Amino acid sequence: MINYLFSDLDGTLLNSQGTVSPQTVQAVRKSGLPMTLVSARAPIEMRGAIQALGLTGPQIGFNGGLIFEYRQNQVQALQAAPLEQALALQVLDFIKATAPTVSLSCYTQSEWLTEKVDAGTRAEEQLTRQIATPIASYAAQFSQHPAAIFKIMIMTLDNQVMATLATALKQMVGSSASVKLSGQTYLEVTSAQAQKSRGIAFIKERFHLTTGELAAFGDGENDLPMLKAVGLPIVMGNADPTIQQYGQHVTKCNDEDGVAYALEHLIGR
Description:
By secondary structure, the chain is an alpha/beta fold. The chain is built from 11 helices and 14 strands. The model has no long low-confidence stretch (mean pLDDT 94). It comes from Lactiplantibacillus paraplantarum.
């Protein structure tokens, strides 16, 4: 019996316009099951979906790097695993030097920062309805305004550049950080402890749930730890076949309300 739901956002719960469709909202509410969003996004970028679905419990951001609740419209951290600061700045410098054409930015708990507002940044602003804060220098910013860095985000439409950079970053950080693709155009660097499965374990312990009571929806490489941590993994129809193989079921695409379809046809109570 499924008693708890987990869902990725981009490419999963959200459609191509970056919103939760009325059909999906209705299906989630009709299910009567509690849901935790498990996303690479920052809390500020998750808020719209949280409010649309009427969620009040713990949510998981930054691929598991931050477990939080909104209390009185403020983010309250329940568990945090930011990047080690010196390593984060080293990674940012490395990307600027070796892949200057990519769109590069980073996130603290409450801010989205970039040295270069470009086409990638503007596209992300349209998708998430958040505005990036331009800064002169990452090093100067964090020297003058200390804050934990939870995620470094790289965006590019050049698959070869993405693949080359992903390999180089994984070699560079080793086991000190996590480097994962999120969809086909995003590469994200987070703490090694920032795994979606970490958030699942937190929820299981808090609400005394078993693995068999959990279902999860996802579409990307960064969703695999989450999908492997639940009893009923469901993968979106728009996911790459290499990701679909990890699903007990493959539902419809995100633009076809795949989560709603799964709730109505694939999940039994």
